[in-house]
């Protein structure tokens, strides 16, 4: 049968998110590499809120397998856990945002 052609491949996370520390007002990019191109069942979250692709959150895919999330001009309100989910697999990382006067 042709059923195998229609089945979604089991996409897994090859290389997960890394914690990031940035200054307030900077952009920050999170990257997660998955095992197959064109994974469809994917979702990005910040603080458990699903993110949409808009002027503040740029969601894209590089080279088919590297899913990226760029948060524009982050503020201390954005501090928290970033999560990338593909199918049943999730990778998380912490975003830390420093105020202007703080040391890294």
UniProtKB/TrEMBL annotation:
Keywords: Cytoplasm, Disulfide bond, Phosphoprotein. It is found in: Cytoplasm. Residues 9-96 form the Ig-like domain. InterPro entries: Ig-like_dom, Ig-like_dom_sf, Ig-like_fold, Ig_I-set, Ig_sub, Obscurin/Obscurin-like_Reg. Transmembrane segments: none annotated. Pfam families: I-set. The keyword Cell membrane does not apply. SUPFAM superfamilies: Immunoglobulin. GO terms for cellular component: cytoplasm. This is OBSCN protein. It comes from Indicator maculatus. The lineage of its organism: Eukaryota, Metazoa, Chordata, Craniata, Vertebrata.
């Amino acid at each position: 049968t042709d059923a195998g052609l229609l089945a979604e491949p089991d996409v897994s996370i090859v290389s997960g998110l890394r914690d990031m520390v940035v200054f307030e007002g900077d952009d920050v990019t999170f990257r997660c590499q998955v095992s197959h191109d064109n994974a469809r069942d994917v979702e990005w979250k910040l603080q458990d809120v699903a993110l949409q692709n808009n002027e503040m959150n740029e969601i894209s895919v590089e080279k088919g397998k590297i899913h990226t999330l760029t948060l524009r001009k982050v503020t201390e309100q954005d501090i928290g856990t970033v999560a990338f989910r593909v199918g049943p697999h999730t990778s998380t990382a912490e975003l830390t945002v420093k105020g202007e006067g703080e040391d890294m």
